[in-house]
Write a structure and sequence with these properties.
102 residues, mainly alpha, 2 domains, 5 helices, 49% helix
Amino acid sequence: MEDGEVSPGKLALATQKQVSYWSDVLRGGAKPFGEKAARDAEDKLNMPSNYLDGTGWPFENMDFARWDRLSERQKGAIEEAINDKLAEIEGRGNRSGNEKAA
C-alpha cells in the first residue's frame, strides 16, 4: 500500500466486500476473519504476508514494495544486519545466527 494506512474503504474496494464488513473486522468485531480473506486482501493491496495478522512487516516507515524487489541474497544481508544491530542494542555483540553463542 502506498501510504501504509489500512482503511475499511480501501479494503472494500480491493476485495469486493462491504465497507461494514471491514469496519467490523478492523474494530475486532464479531465477524470472523479467515486466513483466506486476510491473504486475499494483503495480496490485492500489495501488503506483506501476514500484515493483517499483526505479525508481518515490522517496519512502519519502510515501503514493503522496495523490500519485495530485492534478491534473496540482498534480503539475507539486510536480515543479518538487523540481527547484528538488535544484538548490539541488547548488549550481546554479534548473534546473527551465523555465530555460536559462547
